[in-house]
């Protein structure tokens, strides 16, 4: 009874790792500060300094990092000595990676500045790779390639002594439909996992039907469900990107359906939306557009041509900001150039971003509803005055949020009823193949591609 209680080993390990990450952040910030003062007394250099937080990579399953590290060593041995390849492992952060490759923290600051409009470096995960290309003579970094998967890559290219630009490559690939069917045995969530759906997919399906089904009360053992899932391929390689195309749940004497349509929303068999429509603006009242969506805009601080992939609304700091649609908060971060920002995923096709906030009122993983307050506007990051920078992404590409076609109605438009009915008929035909074998899955080859969207290559940001 008098034994001294000690923290679990795992918790102690986590605390030690957090302290290392904190120290890495301090080192990075001091490096950027040094770069700033160096630039201030060097006429040829133009640098803007902001506090830089390290990008911490999420954990992954045991053994993953060891296998990836071994593969990285083998791959590195075949590369020229001016090209270095780094496979992201759990616990990595950009500051320590650059130190390991003998690349200065000031160069990291320059790349982070280039990444401001893309924010790709905020979503690194174990297994992603960074390829550094150095000048053979000066050993200065001239290019960094970020490889997410075969369909998504970003290349950061040096354009002068003090800055980088980027080029993003998003390939449509092809999608193969896969039928997954099963019976309820316990909760729907666990039943879905048993037949091969991921935790995220099972959770998303539960959210789809949250207003239709009480999974604790309406589901019985033996009830059946059918799911059509598409998997993306580039050539013969799976990218790891999936989407749920259609769902049918047979609970007691009721049938519940959800089908993904070309507008990115889910509708039931009758064409009624399972989620509320979007609203166009993330605030209430009227606000002036201080900087429109413009792919050829000259940046107000750097003076360089830099795509503006969103719309800036002039407003006092502290103005309430609202989610423009139902969704899940997938990012709440503090970026040295984008400031405090929030990213919300709305189903499988839409993503919205809200930048330069003074305060956030939601957390990562939280479900939000259209019109729910998520933040207060501000002037954080690289900004010339109080405002909100708002972005809308469709299929991974930024579009003009003031003109893009977004779902504004609660049901399928009359002009799309015929194509929607044909789409539903095709998916049901696939589902009917599970009648004789309700537990299992099968691949359905398809040449369909991701629906395209135009590429997007007060104060302003």
Summarize the structure.
It is built from 7 helices and 21 strands.
Identify the notable features of this structure and list them briefly.
single chain; 461 residues; alpha+beta; Nuclear Transport Factor 2, Chain: A; 10-stranded antiparallel β-sheet; 6-stranded antiparallel β-sheet; 7 helices; 21 strands; globular
List the helices and strands and how they pair.
Blueprint: H1 9-40, H2 64-76, E1 83-87, H3 94-100, H4 105-114, E2 129-134, E3 141-149, E4 152-160, E5 163-170, E6 174-183, H5 188-194, H6 199-208, E7 224-234, E8 237-251, E9 254-260, E10 266-267, E11 289-291, E12 311-314, E13 320-322, E14 327-335, E15 339-346, E16 350-360, E17 367-368, E18 373-377, E19 387-394, E20 397-399, H7 417-431, E21 440-444
Antiparallel strand pairs: 1-2, 2-3, 3-4, 4-5, 6-7, 6-21, 7-8, 8-9, 9-10, 11-12, 12-19, 13-18, 14-15, 14-17, 15-16, 16-18, 16-19, 19-20
Helix pairs in contact: 5-6
Please describe what this structure looks like:
The chain has 3 domains: 9-170, Nuclear Transport Factor 2, Chain: A (Roll); 178-274 and 414-444, Nuclear Transport Factor 2, Chain: A, CATH 3.10.450; 289-399, Glucose Permease (Domain IIA). A hairpin with a 2-residue loop joins strand 4 (152-160) and strand 5. Strands 11, 12, 13, 14, 15, 16, 17, 18, 19 and 20 form a 10-stranded antiparallel sheet that branches. The chain has a 6-stranded antiparallel sheet with strand order 10-9-8-7-6-21, with helices on both faces. The protein is of the alpha+beta class and 461 residues long. It is built from 7 helices and 21 strands. Helix 5 (188-194) packs across helix 6.
